[in-house]
Amino acid sequence: MLVGLVSGLVSLLMLPLLVVGVLSTAVGGLGLVVFPRMVVAVRWWSEWHRGRAAALLGVSVAARPTGLPKGIGAQWRQAVRGPEARQDLRWLCRQVLTGIPAGLVALAGIGGALGTVAVTAVWWLFPEGEPLRLLGSVPVAGWGAALGLGAVQTAVAGAVAWWAVPRLARRHARSCLTALAPSMEAQLAERVGELTESRAGVLDAHGAELRRIERDLHDGTQARLVAIAMRLGVARETVPEESGALAKLLQEAHEGAEEAMTELREVIRTMYPPILTDRGLEGALTAVAAGAGIPAEVELGELGRLPAAVEAAAYFIVTESLTNAAKHSGATRVVVRLTRDEAGLLIEITDDGTGGADETRGTGLVGIRRRAAALDGTVRVTSPVGGPTAVVVELPCGS
């Protein structure tokens, strides 16, 4: 608790320094640089106390960020408007109001015990008219009284200090942790970060599973169906048509195998298009645009590595949008633009058609929304009558 006394005094000194930091803004804008760094110093100071309080109470706390963002404007906004900066300021005031009194109480208890020992040893230096008095008002007239009364008073002061100081320290530590506990906003931000990391892992796992299933179906099941269809075709050629029922059964079996292969290819294509594996997203979209039946341009920014599920969703969204434009818009030109930022993948499809897109008429927009929603994405459609039509899709990439 003596540390609390020193801490309270230091905190008391920090308050006017913060005021000076704000006022220095008028001196050539010096405060724009100085004040945010003073706030960071307070953050370090509060984090040190928070760590001590957690160690005293035997609990663990997550460290809060103590750095500065890039840019003077961002630093100033964090220092002035940041919820953690306001939290640190409130803690600093509380530290002054509670740390100093608690430290004085501890100092009184410990000092009382040590002071009794010191004055008892020199009781004989006190004048006869004003002797040393222990236990409040009992005068000391000899070594026996000095040692006896001194021992009792030392024991009482020591017992009070032994009982009170740890309790005051724990109470002060709990007060510190309460004052510096993460705000609801910070907890939500932390939770969002955890969910974002979790979603990134899920997307990667989902993409790997899509690729595995597509590869197994393509290389295994489809290959076996092809072999069966070939054998049935050979059998049809071998068995004469005069065989009647047998020839008809072989024909039905052969045609059924070919239909099954067609359906399997469609399943593989809708699950994870093989063209994505062969050409990547850029090559796949270029091929889709070339065969869209309408002049289409594809503009891709720096996309980096995308999860397979996001690549597949982007491919199908662009494909469906180009199909919609070719069938319903009457457009003469479509522009597909893909960019990536911190939020994720941004897909923009615009055409110069007649507009008036209506999701209730089966234009494919419902399917686009469902694909985006499956990845927690968003879709915005702007299609006034007379055009143009713009479909903007945002797909989070988990990072």
From TrEMBL:
<dbReference type="InterPro" id="IPR011712">
    <property type="entry name" value="Sig_transdc_His_kin_sub3_dim/P"/>
</dbReference>
<dbReference type="GO" id="GO:0005524">
    <property type="term" value="F:ATP binding"/>
</dbReference>
<feature type="transmembrane region" description="Helical">
    <location>
        <begin position="146"/>
        <end position="165"/>
    </location>
</feature>
<feature type="domain" description="Histidine kinase/HSP90-like ATPase">
    <location>
        <begin position="309"/>
        <end position="399"/>
    </location>
</feature>
<feature type="transmembrane region" description="Helical">
    <location>
        <begin position="12"/>
        <end position="35"/>
    </location>
</feature>
<keyword id="KW-0902">Two-component regulatory system</keyword>
<dbReference type="InterPro" id="IPR036890">
    <property type="entry name" value="HATPase_C_sf"/>
</dbReference>
<keyword id="KW-0808">Transferase</keyword>
<dbReference type="Pfam" id="PF07730">
    <property type="entry name" value="HisKA_3"/>
</dbReference>
<keyword id="KW-1133">Transmembrane helix</keyword>
<keyword id="KW-0472">Membrane</keyword>
<keyword id="KW-0418">Kinase</keyword>
<keyword id="KW-0597">Phosphoprotein</keyword>
<dbReference type="Pfam" id="PF02518">
    <property type="entry name" value="HATPase_c"/>
</dbReference>
<dbReference type="InterPro" id="IPR025828">
    <property type="entry name" value="Put_sensor_dom"/>
</dbReference>
<dbReference type="GO" id="GO:0016020">
    <property type="term" value="C:membrane"/>
</dbReference>
<dbReference type="GO" id="GO:0046983">
    <property type="term" value="F:protein dimerization activity"/>
</dbReference>
<keyword id="KW-0812">Transmembrane</keyword>
<protein>
    <recommendedName>
        <fullName>histidine kinase</fullName>
        <ecNumber>2.7.13.3</ecNumber>
    </recommendedName>
</protein>
<dbReference type="GO" id="GO:0000155">
    <property type="term" value="F:phosphorelay sensor kinase activity"/>
</dbReference>
<dbReference type="InterPro" id="IPR050482">
    <property type="entry name" value="Sensor_HK_TwoCompSys"/>
</dbReference>
<keyword id="KW-0067">ATP-binding</keyword>
<dbReference type="InterPro" id="IPR003594">
    <property type="entry name" value="HATPase_dom"/>
</dbReference>
<keyword id="KW-0547">Nucleotide-binding</keyword>
<dbReference type="Pfam" id="PF13796">
    <property type="entry name" value="Sensor"/>
</dbReference>
<feature type="transmembrane region" description="Helical">
    <location>
        <begin position="96"/>
        <end position="126"/>
    </location>
</feature>
